[in-house]
Amino acid sequence: MSVWIAIGVTALGCYVVKLVGLLVPAGALERPLVKRLAALLPVALLAALTAQQTFADGQELVIDARAAGLAAAAVALVLRAPFLLVVAAAVVVTAGVRALGG
Amino acid sequence: MTEQTALADKRDGGGKPDSAVVRDALGVGVAVGLSGFAFGVTSAGSGLTLLQTCALSLLVFTGASQFALVGALAAGGNPLTAAAGAFFLGVRNAFYGLRLSQLLALPRAVRPFAAQWVIDETAAVALAQPTRRGVRIGFAATGLSLYVLWNLTTLLGALGAEAIGDTDAWGLDAAGPAVFLALLAPMLRTGVERAVAGLAVLLGLGLLPVLPAGVPVLVAALAAPVVLWAQGRGAREGDR
C-alpha cells in the first residue's frame, strides 16, 4: 500500500510542476536566482543519487562490482558514447565483475 | 525573454524541413525510449509489482524521478520521503514548460494534455528548432514516440526481470546509477556545477549511515543553494 501512496504522490507532484510551467505567465519564474537554483538542483540530486546507488548497501557504504560498472560508464561518457551504450557498459562490467567473484 | 524576441530569434535560424525535425525527434525518442527497459528491470528488481512499475511510467513519465523513487523505496525509504526526492528532481520540468509555453503558444485547453510530455528530451528537441512549426512538430514527435516506447519497454523490462529472477546477478542494479551519471555528465559545464555535484556526493554518502533512507538525498539537494550563496558572497567580496 505504501508503494502506491509513493506512486500517487510522485505522479501528482510531477504532473503539477509540468503543468505549472505551461500555465504561469512568462516572467513569473524568470528571476535570475530562481533560474540558477532550478538548474543546479538536478545537479545536486543526480550527483547524490549516483553516489548512493553505487556505494550504498542499505545504510552501509561498500565498494563492490557496481563501482567498476560505474567507472566503465564514466569512461563511455568521456568517449562520448550514446546513452544506451553508457548504461550497457555499466551493466555488462558489473555482471562481469560479479561473475568473477568480485 | 518576451514572446516577440523569442520569435525574432527563431526566425533568424531560418527554415528546416519538417522531415528533418521528425528525424531528430525520432532519434531521441527511440534511443531514450529503449532505456525504459532499464527502468522496467530496475523497478521490478526493486520489488515493485508489474502494475506499479507500469503505473509509474504511464503517470509519472519523467525518467530520473522514476529511477529515484524505486531506488529510495528499495532502500527502505518512507514513501513520502521517497516521493519528495522524486518530486524535487521533477521540478526542473516546470522551467522547460516555461520556455516551451512561449514557443509552442498552445491554446489553454490543450495545455493540460501537453503537460505530461514536458520533459528533458522533448524540451531539448523542441527548443533546438528554428521555427514555431518546427518547435511544435519536434515537441509532438518526440513526446509521442518517447511516451509509447518508454511505456512499452517498461512493460517488457518488468516482464523480463520477472523471467530472469535475480537481476543483480546480471548487473542490472548498475543501470539506475549509470542513467543518473549519463544525465548528470552534460550538466557539469563549469566549476559551479562541479562544486555542487562534489558537495552533494559528500553529503549524500556522509549522511547515509546516520539518517533514515531517502533523507540524505534531500539534504544533499541543499548543496545547490549553499554553493550559489558562497559564489554570491565571493563575487561581492571581489567587488570590494
Structure description:
Helices cover 75% and strands 4% of the residues of chain A. Chain A is mainly alpha-helical and 102 residues long. Chain A has a domain at 1-30. In chain A, a hairpin with a 2-residue loop joins strand 1 (56-57) and strand 2. The longest helix of chain A has 24 residues, at 32-55. The two termini of chain A are 36 Å apart. Chain B is globular. Chain B is built from 14 helices and no strands. Chain B has 240 residues and is an all-alpha fold. Chain B has 2 domains: 3-187, no CATH class; 189-240, no CATH class. The interface between A and B is large, with 71 and 99 residues.
In summary, what is this structure?
Chain A has 102 residues and is mostly helical. In chain A, 75% of the residues lie in helices and 4% in strands. Chain A is extended and about 55 Å long.
Q: What is Rg of chain B? A: 20 Å
Overall, the morphology of chain A is extended
Largest interface: A-B, 71 and 99 residues
**Mean pLDDT of chain A, rounded to whole units?**
91
Task: Show unreliable segments of chain A.
Answer: none
Number of helices of chain B: 14
Q: Could you state the order of secondary-structure elements of chain A as H and E?
A: HHEEHH
The number of helical elements of chain A comes to 4
Cross-sheet strand order for the largest sheet of chain A: 1-2
Helix content of chain B: over 70%
Helix content range of the residues of chain A, please? over 70%
| Beta strands of chain A, count | 2
- Into which percentage range does the β-strand content of chain B fall? under 5%
Structural class call of chain A reads mainly alpha
Return the string of H and E elements of chain B. HHHHHHHHHHHHHH
